[in-house]
Amino acid sequence: MTIITKSIKIQSKGESDIIDLNDMISEKITKSGISNGIVTVFVAGSTGALTTIEYEPGLLKDFPDMLSRIAPNEINYEHEERWHDGNGRSHVKASLIGPSLTIPFKDGSLLLGTWQQIVFVELDTRGRSRNIILQIIGE
Question: What are phi and psi of 68, to 5 degrees?
Fold first, then answer.
């Protein structure tokens, strides 16, 4: 078994930016030379998250709308009281979604559903440079 660690650098536009990572991850798997295995995808940072979604305009609007109902801008967050950085809701949303995914691949191809894309969701209140870490494990 081989383990290869790679990273993907992305730049987000700010809160609710959703970035499709499928092609970038597939490229790293291809270049790794590993044909079959799993890839763990992890975002370093406490206000970004990873999930899968059908990357289409309706869901790109529905998903952030749903998050704003769960963690609205207008309520008090204790994080704000301590740090005064305006992103308490960002931390709550990121904790709900999570920082990592593990996806199987076979013959160098991600084993995802027809309409399923791996996405990074920016939850911070401003655009950020992000480092997405991949661990490609297999043979």
Answer: -70, -25
pTM: 0.95
The answer to whether the beta carbons of residues 41 and 25 sit under 8 Å apart is: yes
Alpha carbon distance 37, 13 (integer Å): 32
Per the listing, tokens 């998250």 go with 49
d(CA 24, CA 2) in angstroms, rounded, equals 20
pLDDT tens across 23-60, in order?
999 999 999 999 999 999 999 999 999 999 999 999 99
User: Which of 2.60.120.460, 1.10.10.10, 2.170.150.70, 2.60.40.2150 is the CATH number of 2-138?
Assistant: 2.60.120.460
- Asked if residue 100 lies in contact with residue 1, where contact means CB atoms within 8 angstroms, the answer is no
Structure tokens at 56: 């289409």
Beta bridge partners of 26: none
